[in-house]
C-alpha cells in the first residue's frame, strides 16, 4: 500500500472538519491532508493528481455530490478504480445509509461518535489498520 500519499478528507461541516483535522494531528499523521467540502471537489482532485492517496475518509450527506455518488463515480472510472484507494465512510448518523452502501466497494463505515474522545478512537483504529495492512494499491 502506498502509505506516503495524501489523506483525502471529504467533509462539508466546518466544525467536523476542524475536529477531524485536530484529531489527525494529535494522532501524529505525517501525510499531507487534502480537505474538500463535497464529492465533486474531491473527484476533481482525484482526476487531476498524479499522486495516489493513502486513504479517503468521506462523509455521506453533503451538498453538490454526496459521499455515495462520489464513491460510485470513483468505481465507474477505470483509472481511479484500478488505483484501489482505500475508501472509508465516517458519518454522524450512518444508520439511514447502511442499505445504500451495501453494493459499494468500501473498506469501512464508521460513526464519528458523540465526543472528541470517540472520534479520536475511531480515527486511531482506521489509521492503525491502514498503516499495518499489506493490501496493495
TrEMBL record:
The modification 4-aspartylphosphate is found at residue 59. Residues 6-127 form the Response regulatory domain. Keywords: Phosphoprotein. Gene3D superfamilies: 3.40.50.2300. The keyword Metal-binding does not apply. InterPro entries: CheY-like_superfamily, Sig_transdc_resp-reg_receiver, TCS_response_regulator. This is Response regulator. It comes from Chryseosolibacter indicus. The lineage of its organism: Bacteria, Pseudomonadati, Bacteroidota, Cytophagia, Cytophagales.
Amino acid at each position: 500500500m502506498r502509505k506516503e500519499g495524501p489523506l483525502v478528507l471529504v467533509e462539508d461541516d466546518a466544525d467536523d472538519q476542524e475536529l477531524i483535522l485536530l484529531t489527525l494531528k494529535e494522532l501524529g499523521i505525517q501525510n499531507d491532508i487534502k480537505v474538500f467540502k463535497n464529492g465533486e471537489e474531491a473527484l476533481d482532485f482525484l482526476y487531476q493528481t498524479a499522486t495516489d492517496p493513502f486513504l479517503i475518509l468521506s462523509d455521506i450527506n453533503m451538498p453538490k455530490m454526496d459521499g455515495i455518488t462520489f464513491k460510485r463515480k470513483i468505481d465507474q472510472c477505470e483509472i481511479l478504480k484500478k488505483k484501489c484507494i482505500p475508501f472509508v465512510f465516517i458519518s454522524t448518523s450512518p444508520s439511514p445509509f447502511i442499505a445504500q452502501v451495501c453494493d459499494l466497494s468500501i473498506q469501512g463505515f464508521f460513526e464519528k461518535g458523540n465526543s472528541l474522545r470517540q472520534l479520536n478512537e475511531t480515527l486511531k483504529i482506521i489509521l492503525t489498520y491502514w498503516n499495518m495492512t499489506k493490501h496493495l494499491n
